[in-house]
Each structure stands twice: as structure tokens, then as C-alpha cells.
Amino acid sequence: QVQLVESGGGLVQAGGSLRLSCAASGIIFKIHTMGWFRQAPGKQRELVADITGSSSTNYADAVKGRFTISRDNAKNTVYLQMNSLKPEDTGVYYCNAVYNNNVIMWGQGTQVTVSS
User: Fold this and answer.
1) Which among 15, 57, 61, 82 counts the fewest CB atoms within 10 Å?
2) Is 2 exposed, middle or buried (0-12, 13-18, 19+ CB in 10 A)?
3) Distance CA 22, CA 6 (A)
4) How confident is the model over 38-64, as a mean pLDDT?
């Protein structure tokens, strides 16, 4: 079955870095757009970045210049490199897989906490 598993979250001080990974199974990974979203307590889930099968990328304004999304189609994995982290980056980070504008699956999420 389709499964997305995130990893790499944790506690980091402001200014630090984390690298999130999302491993996919059960899908033809290379044809899916993969996205990273986050949800802070009391707020709606929001798009952080996404990457198409041809590696075109899109970023939320709040993370441009600090975060980088990438994918390794041979490993069925999408990454989110997060640098210069801020306390407002705190939240649960989710990946998803999209095909033909339909969300196929969400991951279970990984917690990122940035202390000031």
C-alpha cells in the first residue's frame, strides 16, 4: 500500500539546521509531486515547499532562501533542508504525494521545535 514516512525532526536552537526526509513506498515516485507542509499549534496546515517529478520547486515566502527541497528518485525520497531556523518554524512537518492535482497520501508527521 501507499506509505510516506517522515524522519529527521527534533529540537534545535534558533539559527540551527535540520534535514527532514520522507521515504515513499507503493507509488511510482518519480511521477508524483512531493510536498512539505507544516502545522503549528492552533494554526492551519500550510505549504512549505513542493517539488515536481521534473524537480521544479516552489517555496512559501516565509522559507525562501532558508529551506531547500530536493528529491532522489532512485531512493524514493524527498528531503527538506532547513537552515537558519526560527522559533516560528516550529510545528509538525508533513510530506504528501500528489498526482494529477489529487493528494494520494500524507505522512504521519515529524515534530520540529526551534528554541529561542
Assistant:
1) 61
2) exposed
3) 4
4) 97
